[in-house]
Amino acid sequence: MTESLFTRLAGALACCNIEEKLQLTAKLANDWQADQLDWRSTVQPELHCGRPEKPELVSPRKVKQRNPKSPEGRARLLHAIVHIEFSAINLALDHAARFPGQPRAYYDDWIGVAAEEAEHFSLLRARLQALGHDYGDFPAHDGLWQMAEKTANDLLARMALVPRLLEARGLDATPPIQRRLAAAGDEASARVLDIILHDEIAHVGLGDRWFRELCGQRGLPAEITYRNLLQTYDAPWPQSPMNEAARLQAGFSADELAALAKKM
Predict the structure, then answer these.
(1) pLDDT tens digits, 83-117
(2) How far, in Å, CA of 178 to CA of 184, rounded?
(3) Chain centroid, CA 249 distance in Å
(4) Residue 1 has pLDDT above 80, yes or no
(5) Homologous superfamily of 71-261
(6) Contacts of 148 (CB under 8 A, 6+ apart)
(7) How far apart are alpha carbons 204 and 27 in whole angstroms?
(8) CA–CA distances in Å: residue 96 to residues 17, 27, 59, 155
(9) Spatial separation of the C-alpha atoms in residues 117 and 88, rounded to whole Å
(10) What global pTM score does this model have?
């Protein structure tokens, strides 16, 4: 009997141990590719987001400024990005687990993203460890997961406000961070972010693709609906300067970027 995809997704999502979550995510992706998991299953387990005891999660206002000119500041900066990548594993697992009844391609996409986010986490964690620290050494905030909780009942809102909004902000933030790391002499970390930026363009593009697909199914104008959702959910508006080249690759139109820049 083929095992339920949703049971496996729920197990990986709920796991609190870092190494075990990475292993479960990798095995899930391999078994999915081997066609060993039933995506049509009606089994819908309860979903819980598993995290290690550390880092301590605090308000964004309580996270210290991260100046990469000092070794500790550089470690804090990398720790913040490592935390985003760990959160992104959980987000991709939850995207797949929470919304049954989607096309097979939908699960293909987000299981693949979960596996890539696990690789990103490991790459950046290694850079953090090279600086004498590890994931959990500094506080972090949890804005990504809070938005996932707000959009748990609507896949269209989830695609709009997690990959297409919050994860797209990473496309804007990454090049300036790379320049700061390189200026501080940490070329190795800056180059790791090259890999992650390339992959994250594709991840945001998947959010864009499914958001537009769902808007089409509901007869909604995608770009106007997106701006309406920002207001409905009191979500943070995209901040300028945006990485327009990366956003265009991810599916945003030039007209939409202009409207977002003007807050129209």
Answers:
(1) 999 999 999 999 999 999 999 999 999 999 999 99
(2) 10
(3) 17
(4) no
(5) Ferritin, core subunit, four-helix bundle (1.20.1260.10)
(6) 90, 91, 94, 158, 162
(7) 24
(8) 20, 15, 28, 10
(9) 6
(10) 0.96
